[in-house]
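can u do me a favor
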């Protein structure tokens, strides 16, 4: 029966894969469970779907309703989704907080105001904001940052903001156009541009609010490699409450209940189809929950963290100088006065990522620099950064950049 068939369409950022994505997996599991409870058959569609043909042939009309995860970075897909909305009931997850459609999300603005309140309570008065994506929720989070700063009568300095324009409340035009043209190989380089912007400022903010946890985690590692500790030198907050690197989570964040959000979307769509809710204009914003951890602390910061800052700086300086030499890397335990086993445990608890993974990431980042900026053969590069085989090097490189080394070099040569 048609009234028991729902479609779910994922059209994420062009460089983001739905396969293996931790958030997508959480959402899909919850969608399947909730639809099963209601006796609803669920069909998932991803990037392999020809959305234009799907709409043109009227295939969407074979479903009672549709839940859409449509990125604003794909305007043609957004237009097609709007055509579907005119034909069958739809609930949007990525966009639609404003306008006449149906939407289920989190209260992004209230969440960011709460984070600003917390940072002010900790004694931070110079606070920046950094964004990466060009989504509706990015702007909502920026508006929450701006509103929180205004409520506390704190200065909003343009140089403390990346990705959004404080004058218009919209995306910075240069950032917007750069993201529209973004390809996977350029993402690490663009993130370094964001991070480098903040670290190079003559007067840095005391705290930076990142639009999501992934960006915040990457910044913490980037800063640590350059001798800037979090929260000792700079406080950081994220959004979503996802521990990307495993181990002890140090990041202050907002819990984003992806599971509950999509379950709510299923029930809203079900109610619309049954006539319990109106066809359009239904908005459900889940209340945010702030999770305070050490990355944002100042007044509440234990004195013991000073010793942790020293450990971070010493270890990262040693790794940066010796990442290509396995014997020297193992010697770091002796320099810190620890057994190697205890050092590995302390490293993971301090950085939130295993020592071997961190070293591999540094090696691969250096390899990427060589590939972009030199004509050095791949075999020479992998030896110079500490690998013995092409197999291991290619595996770790592809995991970091999503492509093989030679493809990465070719992509950057075309870009140049």
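np, heres the sequence
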């Amino acid at each position: 029966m048609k009234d028991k068939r729902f479609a779910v369409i994922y059209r994420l950022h062009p460089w983001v894969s739905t396969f293996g994505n931790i958030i997508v997996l959480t959402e899909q599991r919850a969608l399947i469970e909730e639809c099963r409870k209601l006796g609803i058959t669920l069909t998932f569609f991803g990037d392999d779907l020809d959305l234009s043909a799907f709409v043109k042939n009227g295939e969407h009309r074979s479903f009672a309703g549709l839940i859409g995860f449509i990125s604003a970075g794909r305007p043609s897909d957004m237009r097609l989704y709007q055509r579907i909305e005119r034909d069958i009931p739809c609930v949007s997850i990525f966009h639609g907080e404003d306008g006449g459609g149906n939407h289920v999300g989190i209260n992004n603005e209230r969440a960011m105001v709460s984070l600003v309140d917390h940072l002010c309570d900790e004694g931070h008065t110079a606070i920046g904001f950094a964004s990466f994506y060009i989504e509706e929720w990015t702007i909502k989070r920026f508006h929450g940052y701006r509103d929180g700063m205004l409520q506390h009568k704190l200065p909003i300095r343009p140089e403390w903001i990346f990705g959004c324009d404080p004058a218009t409340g919209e995306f910075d035009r240069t950032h917007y156009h750069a993201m529209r043209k973004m390809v996977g190989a350029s993402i690490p380089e663009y993130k370094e541009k964001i991070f480098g912007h903040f670290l190079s400022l003559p007067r840095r903010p005391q705290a930076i609010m990142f639009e999501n946890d992934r960006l915040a985690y990457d910044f913490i590692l980037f800063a640590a490699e350059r001798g800037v500790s979090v929260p000792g030198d700079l406080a950081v907050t994220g959004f979503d409450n996802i521990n990307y690197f495993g181990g002890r989570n140090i990041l202050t964040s907002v819990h984003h209940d992806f599971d509950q959000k999509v379950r709510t979307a299923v029930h809203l769509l079900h109610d619309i189809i049954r006539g319990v809710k109106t066809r359009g204009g239904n908005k459900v914003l889940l209340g945010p929950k702030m999770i305070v951890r050490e990355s944002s602390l100042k007044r509440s910061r234990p004195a013991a963290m000073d010793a942790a800052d020293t450990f971070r700086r010493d270890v990262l300086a040693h790794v940066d100088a010796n990442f290509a030499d396995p014997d020297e890397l193992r010697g770091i335990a002796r320099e810190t006065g620890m057994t190697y086993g205890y050092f590995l445990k302390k490293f993971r608890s301090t950085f939130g990522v295993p020592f071997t993974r961190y070293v591999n990431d540094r090696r691969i980042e250096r390899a990427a620099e060589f590939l972009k900026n030199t004509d050095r053969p791949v075999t020479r590069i992998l030896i110079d950064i500490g690998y013995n085989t092409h197999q291991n090097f290619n595996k770790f490189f592809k995991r970091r950049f999503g492509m093989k080394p030679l493809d990465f070099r070719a992509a950057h040569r075309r870009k140049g």
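The mean pLDDT is 88. hope that helps!!
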